[in-house]
Design brief:
Elements lengths: L11 E8 L10 H16 L8 E3 L9 H6 L6 E3 L7 H14 L5 E8 L1 H7 L24 H16 L3 H15 L13 H5 L3 E3 L2 E2 L9 E9 L11 E10 L15 H12 L8 E4 L4 H10 L8 H5 L17 H5 L6 H13 L18 E8 L4 E8 L2
Parallel strand pairs: 2-3, 2-4, 9-10
Antiparallel strand pairs: 1-7, 1-8, 4-7, 5-6, 8-11, 10-11
Helix pairs in contact: 6-9
């Protein structure tokens, strides 16, 4: 484990994490889910609400995050609402850690909540995955470049360039569902096979339904604090060791290489700043709106060489008891995906490092010890942005 401070003059710890009610939540507003998750994270930390002087939120409210902070009864002196899609929460965590280290805040609460599933079910809003009726993106929209189609194009390029197969991508969905089977909070827990994935309805070639994330309701919260607060915590801290952020493109024509995501940059920066190598990581929580996201992120974070992701994921390596457990809660493919899922990655990583996942799904090392190091990496847009955070118990 590296010595010294990863940021500025103060070390930064995760003090509390929590989920709101998730999955199918028909009787709550997004604000209520924010509040529920925030209360639970504070209770998890053992700290009083009065210690919070920083707040980060995105995706809700006329003046995010001010409106949500007001709803929660907070008057923060440090705020952030950077919104870069699914990577938002790793980026916000990086910003918060830097602010805490520099002394601009002592305790920053990150909160998210969404009723994406309930809104569509009730008719309160309709799904729109096309994006970009104005600005540069408008020139791609007439050609059917929905969000799903953009990922599908990238997957096809990887298949063409490196020989990656649909069966290999399907094995990601199968292993993720196996991880979800032991998670009582996961929306889908029944086992699936490669044939189930390949035989489903095609959504955007080559993706069938089970290659794609689910739609759920839910929220979560993470409380970051300065090391000064650690003696007051109810549980042992999980330390923020390093982070990295990066952006790539919005229009597909500006993407240099469909087989490389911005995680290649954010991951390198996070590992360098943490003083950690990818082969030291015990588990990875990766954004998985589609199976291809998992594969290419594993490559770009350095867990395998470029083009070798298909072979890497095809051996059961991603299972809870595999060589590199990935998305141990069942991920966005099976557990929950209420929109911008990045904060859920941090919650699950912290719970695993604390040893709180429960006997049926707790990751343990070969000698039976708890994991020491985890990485959470979020992806936004269609590989437009990436945020990577390295966490450790020591």
């Amino acid at each position: 484990m590296p010595s010294g401070t990863p940021y500025g003059n103060r070390k930064v710890a995760v003090a509390g994490v929590a989920l709101s009610d998730c999955g199918r939540v028909d009787d709550a507003t997004p604000y209520a889910l924010h509040a529920q998750a925030a209360r639970r994270a504070l209770a998890d930390s053992g700290l009083d609400r009065s210690v919070i002087d920083g707040f980060a939120s995105a995706g809700l409210g006329t003046l995010a995050p001010i409106e949500v902070a007001e709803y929660l009864g907070l008057r923060p002196t440090w705020v952030d609402s950077t919104s870069v899609g699914g990577a938002t929460w790793e980026v916000l965590a990086a910003h918060a850690a830097e602010a805490i280290a520099a002394g601009h805040a002592d305790a920053v609460l990150l909160v998210y909540g969404s009723t994406a599933r309930a809104d569509i079910k009730s008719g309160r809003r309709t799904s729109n995955l096309s994006f970009g009726s104005r600005g540069p993106l408008q020139f791609e929209v007439p050609y059917g470049h929905t969000l799903i189609a953009k990922y599908a194009m990238a997957a096809r390029r990887h298949m063409h360039q490196y020989g990656t197969t649909l069966e290999q991508l399907a094995r990601i969905a199968v292993q993720t569902r196996a991880n979800a089977a032991a998670n009582p909070d996961a929306m889908y827990r029944d086992p699936i096979t490669v044939d189930d994935v390949l035989g489903g309805p095609v959504i955007a070639d080559p993706f069938t339904t089970l290659h794609c994330c689910i739609r759920s309701d839910g929220g979560c919260a993470v409380l970051l604090v300065a090391e000064d607060r650690v003696p007051d915590l109810a549980k042992p801290p999980v330390w923020v060791l390093g982070s990295g952020t990066a952006v790539s493109h919005t229009t597909m024509s500006e993407w240099d290489d469909f087989t490389v995501s911005p995680a290649a940059v954010s991951g390198r920066l996070a590992f360098e700043r943490a003083g950690i190598r990818p082969d030291e990581i015990d588990l990875a929580e990766l954004y998985d709106a589609f199976t291809y996201m998992t594969l290419v992120t594993l490559e770009d974070l350095g867990f395998c060489a470029k083009g070798e992701g298909g072979a890497f994921v095809g051996t059961g390596r991603l299972l809870r008891d595999g060589d590199l457990p990935v998305n141990t809660d069942g991920g966005g493919l099976s557990a929950c995906h209420p929109g911008m899922r990045g904060l859920f990655l941090l919650v699950e990583a912290v719970r695993q490092l604390r040893g709180e996942a429960g006997p049926d799904r707790q990751v343990r090392k070969a000698d039976g010890a708890l994991p020491r190091l985890a990485v959470a990496s979020g992806t936004g847009g269609w590989f437009c942005s990436s945020g990577t955070v390295v966490l450790g118990r020591d």
